[in-house]
Each structure stands twice: as structure tokens, then as C-alpha cells.
DNA sequence: CTACGATTTTGCAGCGCTGCAAAACAGCAT
DNA sequence: ATGCTGTTTTGCAGCGCTGCAAAATCGTAG
């Protein structure tokens, strides 16, 4: 196991100081063409590659950002993750991943002692178990960008789509189909359920705008937004005296679970019950039926999050906190529109 | 922005040398109870936390391992990722993620210059674009564990299930149902398609064992193992003169795509065509119909991969390369068995 | 030919920690 | 006391790089 090539080795071969080699390697301005070439040649000859650890220690930064999400096997997050990694890498940053399982303690530890660990220079965080209060209590030295679930209190950036408007559109789409017994699956009427509550608000607004009344027994709370929750909630709805003829699900996974229950009970989607989801994950594009959904611009959310974070990391005086809105759109698929190309029988 | 607390600060407060503080912090053996308590008190009082960067530089290791996979939004990988992160963290390691998109150059760069980057101490790698030849050409100083797709050449560990046996079981399951026009979707008859070829081998063995003949026109190649490939391949199969009555798909995603095509053409699964997948991803458990599949023990694959890698990282003389087999089992669901009991009660 | 400002290069210290080997200390036998 | 082991603590160097400021070099004008 031979020793790695260091700056000093290169310097010696090129006949310059190690500091000059550093300048060349880092593309500093004030280096004459002559020396640059000479150094570059030595670098190539020895196959020098900078030691990231040493550089980071000297610079007092880690060159890494952390992406902290509740669940990695949730397609929404894994799709987001891809774009985050791509963007960060393009800017010379590595991405550390952490999954919190929504555990408040785990989440708190991350944002409270974050900057002391020196393992990452900033965090993109999608909280689940922390309420607004706990969030505000984050390490003030830690550059922080929050995704989706909360609104900023002025000490971090926040990026998400307009949940209220999007949910209203989703609900209106169902009402436009003539459905009146419209249910909602995914409310979370407690401190950490802010995003869910915004969706419920949009749901209600759609009814109000048309002078219709929301049936309160059709608003179902679920602890999470996964398939199982959707399946169970749908089963509950179907057992009601007057079951719904349409369902607004707060995530595509919930919608897939709901559809699963509907189909297994012999009901037709959308004929008997129309279903709309939220997130536009790939699963929903290939499911049976495919899922009508609210599609947030994930690519933009990811790249914006990274860029804002790097901006924060780069500035000595923290930039003012911003509240960013990513665009969204309604994508109509079979679960509300029916088969576009009708089946044989 | 105050300066961070260092070892020296603690040492001063405790009235000992900084080296002793280091010993206490790292739990070294030869420290008297007296000093340990004194130091610990100082640590607590100042809220000292070690600087990981400095420690790593001094130790010449990074405390991080890399997980390199072709696609992060493939549920199989994101499910694996979770277990890898959990295991690594328990052993004090962080996980860096990288997605290669199956790009051979990207993959090569990782294993060829890996150890020079000093960003990670070892790599768990699921190759896609590299053939056996290119794999052998990895940096010999880089601790490496390969997942799934290849067999070891003696310079790295390899972990995967027995693809041939599993595929044979899957095919036998279809034959047991009385199906005879059994198709296979996912063959990759080229150097980088080793795993696919092993599955095709198992497929053939199942026929041979019963004295049946494989219909060559029912073996379909696909570039990847995703939904789209499955959907297209299925469409092609249905356009044949004598279409199949059962399909063995080389991944659950392929199966989901295939089912999608079947259903949209008005065919019933499994009545008209039975479908079996591979990987046991969560999507297949909630789809309509749910997908019969080969379930590899992902948890074991992940934890074993991490442990083997850490073992390699820890040993000065590289341990002998091992070829590890994780168990698998057949999970029968609706896509072959039909509706058994209405789930999601 | 000298002086002076601008540009390029260099030397050194130090980021915060650990490896190493020496030093200090303690316990016990002589 | 003295010597001898074994344990605990310490000092120092250095991981490989960059920040800083001084030094060297260059170009131009006087």
C-alpha cells in the first residue's frame, strides 16, 4: 500500500512551492501560464488527487450536505433524492442521507446539534415528527432548508407547493365530475400535521366556493400517508351507511391503497368511486387504473432547495429567509377519467 | 459565531493533557476512574463534541462508506438503502449515496479511483454497465462488496441470492398451475447482463426438468427492468400468433408494467395470463392484482454487505473474497393464485 | 538606472485530532 | 532506600491542505 501523492510531492517535481500547486489545482487567478502548465504536467504525471479530508479540515467545512427525510422507500422522497444528488454533485457537494422514520427525537438531534458535527455544512430537511415550535428551536448556525411540511418562521428557507390551492383544484376536479359524496383521506388534526391540514383546508374551500356542504364523516385521518393507511381508510369509508362516490387522497400511496380496497371489494374505479392522489409518483402512472394526481414540480423543488442551501452556506451574513412556491399541476388519469382506450369486454 | 470547543479547551478545564481527554472520549482502557470522571465533567460542561473531520484526517480514514447503485427510484434499491444506512450507522459509519444511471464510465470512475478520494473507506456497489472484465479492474486498495449482478473474481466479496434456483422455482410455480405457454421478460444476452442470463438459465432448467420445451419466441429481452420495459414487452407478446398464458418477469417493476398492459387490453390476471415477478417490492403487495414474486432477503443482503465491507476496511491484510448467498422464497399472491381472500379488511 | 505599484510566488502557521514513544507515577520486592 | 515492573499520562510531530502576509518578481514611468 504505497503512500498517496501529496501536494508537496507535486511541488517538488514541478520545482515550485506547495502553495503554488494548491493555487493551480484550485484554479486561482494569479498564476502565470508558464507555471500553470508546469504544475499541471507534474500533477498528471504523478496522478495527484487532492485529499478531500485535509482540504475540508483546513477550510473548516465538510463539502457535504445532508438530506434528512422521514422515509426513503417512499417514492416521493426517492424521486426527490435523485435530483438533489444530481444538483449537489454539480456544485461540488456530496450528499449524506438520513432517514428519521418521523421520530421526533431523531429529527431534533439533527437540527439541534447539526453544526457541531461538522459532517455536513447544511441540511435539507423534510420534518414529520416536529411541530412548528420544535422546528424553531434549531441550531441558528446551521444552514437549513425545509421541504414541504412547514412554513418558515424566518430563520430558514421553506420550499413547497401551494397545498391549499392544489387540494382545492383536486377537489374541484372531483366535483366537476358530478360527484357529491366526496371523501378526503389523510387529515392529521394535530400540531405536526400542518401540511395535511392545509390540504383539508383546500378540500373545504372547493365545497364552499360552490355552496356545497362538506360531510364531516367523510374526512378521514391517517397517521401516515402510505398504502396501508389508504387501504384501511377506504375500507372504513365503504362500511359507512352512505359511502362516498369519490375520494381525495393526500398522497398517491394512499390512493393506491384505497384503490386496492375498492377493487378487491368488486367496485369499479372510477365508475363507482373516483380517486385522486397527490405527488405524482411513478407507481401511479402504471397502476390499474392509473392515478389522477396533483403533480408538484419535484425537479424544481430539489434544485431550488440545493441552491438556496448552498447560498446560505456561502454567505457569512445569513440571507433573509424566503418562502418559495414550486408550481404544481393536475394530471388527469384513469382513476377519475376512466379508460381512455376502452378494454375489449 | 463562536469558535467550537476543542480537545484542548476541555483539557485546560480538566487540568490534564489533551491526549488524555482524547483517551477518555474514545473510551481507552488505561484511564483511572478519577481522571475519567474529571474529564467527563469538563466535556459535559463545555458541551464538547469531537470534530469528525480532524479525527478522520489524523486517522487517515473517512468514517464513511459509499453505496453505489444504478437507480435510486427503483424500489428495490431504496428498500435496500434503508437497511444499509441503519446497519452502517449502528457501526459508526455514515453512508454516501451515488446513482450511476448504469453509466459505465461513471461506474468505472468509482471503483478505479475510489481509494484516492478518501471520501469513503469502502464501497458497496451494484454494477449495471460494467462487465466482469471491467469489474476486475478495480482499485485493489479499495474495499469492495458487490451486490447482485456479478460473481466475484476473488478480489472482492459478492452477495446475492441464487438467481438460477430462484428463477427455476418461479417458473416451476407457473408450470404447476398448468400453464404451458410460459414467457420470460427481461433477458439480456450481452456481457453486462449476467444476472439476467442466470434467470434465463433457471427458466430453461424448469422446462428441462419436466421434459418440456422452451418456446424461444417467448423469451423477451429488455434493456432495463422497469415498468415501461415490462409494458412494452407484454404488448409485443400479446401480438404474437400464439400469445403466452403465463409470464415470468425478471423484476416486480417489469411485472407491474406487464400487468398494466394486460389489464388495459381487457385480459384478466391470472385467469388469462398469470404473472410472476422478482424482488418483492412493496408496490407489488398493494397492486391490482397483487404480484406473486421471488422475495430475496433484503435485510440480510444489506446487513451482510455492510459487515463484510467493514471487515475488509478493518483488516490490514485483505480477507479472502467470499461468495455469499442470501436466502429467497416464493411468495404467492393474486397475479398467479387469483383472489384468495379479500385483503385490507 | 531607480522607484514604485501590481502581480506572482513563497513560507509559515495551524485546522483538531491521533500515533508514537518517552516520561511520570504507582506498587511491590529487595 | 533502591530497583524493577506495569500502568497512566504527557509531549510532540504530523495527517495534507489552505489562509495570511511577507517576499520576490515584473513592468513601467520618471
Automatic annotation (TrEMBL), chains A, B:
CDD domains attached to this UniProt entry: HTH_LacI, PBP1_LacI_sugar_binding-like
Coiled coil spans: none
Keyword Electron transport appears in the UniProt entry: no
Gene3D superfamilies, per the entry: 3.40.50.2300, lambda repressor-like DNA-binding domains (1.10.260.40)
Matches recorded under SUPFAM superfamilies: lambda repressor-like DNA-binding domains, Periplasmic binding protein-like I
Record InterPro entries: HTH_LacI (IPR000843), LacI/GalR-like_sensor (IPR046335), Lambda_DNA-bd_dom_sf (IPR010982), Peripla_BP_I (IPR028082)
Record key words, sorted: DNA-binding, Transcription, Transcription regulation
Domain HTH lacI-type: from-to ranges: 5-59
Top-level taxon: Bacteria
Matching Pfam families: LacI, Peripla_BP_3
GO molecular function, one term: DNA-binding transcription factor activity
Record PROSITE patterns: HTH_LACI_1, HTH_LACI_2
Entry-linked PANTHER family: LACI-RELATED TRANSCRIPTIONAL REPRESSOR, LACTOSE OPERON REPRESSOR
Protein name: Transcriptional regulator, LacI family
Organism, scientific name: Actinoplanes regularis
